[in-house]
Amino acid sequence: MTSAEPAEKLLTPVLSASWDDERPWTLATYRRHAGYEGLQAALAMPPDDVIALVKDAGLRGRGGAGFPTGMKWQFIPQNDGKPHYLVVNADESEPGTCKDIPLLFANPHSLIEGMIIASYAIRCDHAFIYLRGEVVPVLRRLQAAVAEAYEAGYLGKNILGSGIDLDITVHAGAGAYICGEETALLDSLEGRRGQPRLRPPFPAIAGLYACPTVVNNVESIASVPPILARGKEWFKSLGTEKSPGFTLYSLSGHVTNPGQYEAPLGVTLRQLLDISGGVRAGHRLKFWTPGGSSTPMFTDEHLDVPLDYEGVGAAGSMLGTKALQVFDETTCVVRAVTRWTEFYAHESCGKCTPCREGTYWLVQLLRRIEAGQGSAGDLEKLLDIADNINGKSFCALGDGAASPIVSSLQHFRAEYEQHLTERRCPFDPAASTVWA
Ligand code: L3W
Ligand code: SF4
Questions:
Q1: Fewer CB within 10 Å, N side or C side of the chain?
Q2: Residue range 389-407: mean pLDDT, rounded
Q3: Mean of the per-residue pLDDT values for the chain?
Q4: 386: CA distance to ligand 2 center in Å?
């Protein structure tokens, strides 16, 4: 793939191929797009061969960490006499992240088919979808699709005459960001307050009800049926050697046409902006996130960074959830970081001191700097607190909260200093009060 190729050729609609059809969420439309053919292929193979195929294809988790999906399935012990569970993490709530909800809304059967294949592979007969609770229309759509799948014989007893049983429970969470952390999600699903558990043991060994459990992101599981239907070589022909395949990039913010762009891993933001009409007219890119607000921010110097796990990592950030939030030159970086930090402070579960106390104090400092009431030394204090959170917190939420502070100071320290010396926000001089 080169920048000389026509931009549209970079798009590879697979999960999003039916989204513009009439009623794309129905079983009939899904079948018209070769739906449930991957399941037929899987049921014709022994479960271990399904795991080997997904592993060889190189599918990596789309929830943020990029962990190899087939390897995770392989961790599930066999012949252990315990129930095995599949839990789909649909608690999408990272700021800027907005791919799983549209996918579920438009194409819920891609997830259900992937769940049946994954459950068959790991020998599970009860799978769960943990959905972000606020999205009631998606909950209803998912419940309707699950009911449709039962009626068609894809769920329940003796699926398609294979002798395999599977039930799916759709569970709506109560709107806590921390419940997207896999072990907090499991506690919440078990009916407790969602707080992260100590790992190890990882869920693959002791997960839901202390039984071996695979926790995968929605997009990871929905990507499985096309691999079964079209083969691992096709999947590997897309993307890069270490980050193969297609994925959903979510473009948001100051762009002409925000939305989901499905493309091979390894495209660049420059290419995606070419396809999507670019930064809004008359403005220029100032900063952006490659994978949601938890991932260190990039600037216009990073337009050609390949958006795959290795490329973004080598440039000093993380691909995360591929939530590309674009900000132009009208944005005050201090204000943007303050808003994100307020989110993390609000969502901190309070279990560990560095994150619980640190995010609170970060917000106090940022609010006063943004309002032009900061003091000399505040920037060092911000970095000191971030350093006391980063790598010293119990789960990734803490690291995620520190990341925008550190990266924005790395790229835009002069803008922070301008707030201190001018004693006002240069973007909004009227904002001189510290917010409540
Ligand atoms: C068995 C081992 N399993 C690792 C499994 C582990 C998990 C997966 C990845 O955080 C990141 C976070 C966010 N035996 C294992 C093993 N596993 N070693 O592999 O684990 P890990 O710890 O690398 O990541 P994580 O805890 O899943 C995910 C970042 O993603 N993120 C955004 C997240 C937001 C959302 C959302 O809103 N939907 O997902 C953005 O960057 O900060 O670093 O399953 O069990 N030896
Ligand atoms: Fe809770 Fe934050 Fe500690 Fe994670 S880092 S356990 S969210 S207090």
A1: C
A2: 98
A3: 96
A4: 14
Ligand 2 centre to CA of 70 (Å) is 28
Q: How many angstroms is it from 337 CA to the middle of ligand 2?
A: 19
Which parts of 63-173 fold into alpha helices (H)?
69-74, 100-106, 108-122, 136-151
Complex ipTM: 0.96
Ligand nearest to the CA of 184: 2
At CB < 8 A and 24+ separation, what contacts does 186-194 make? 186/87, 186/213, 186/215, 188/130, 189/87, 189/128, 189/130, 194/349
DSSP at 165: -
Q: Which ligand 2 atom is nearest residue 196's CA?
A: 6
Does the pLDDT of residue 431 top 80, yes or no?
A: no
C-alpha closest to that of 275 among 329, 239, 324? 324
Atom of ligand 2 nearest to the CA of 178: 7
Angle at the Cα of 211 (from 208 to 215), degrees rounded to 5? 50
Residue 395 CB less than 6 A away from ligand 2: yes
Torsion over CA of 40, 42, 47 and 53, rounded to 10 degrees?
170
Q: Which ligand is nearest to the CA of 349?
A: 2
Say what the pLDDT of residue 429 is.
66
What is the rounded CA–CA span in Å between residue 140 and residue 241?
39
Nearest ligand to the CA of 66 is 1
Closest of 236, 250, 211 to residue 54, by C-alpha: 236
Pick the residue with more confidence: 212 or 431?
A: 212
65 CA distance to ligand 1 centroid (A)?
5
Which ranges of 263-323 does DSSP label H, i.e. alpha helix?
Answer: 269-276, 309-314
pTM for this predicted structure: 0.96
| Residue 90 burial by Cβ neighbours in a 10 Å radius (0-12, 13-18, 19+) | buried
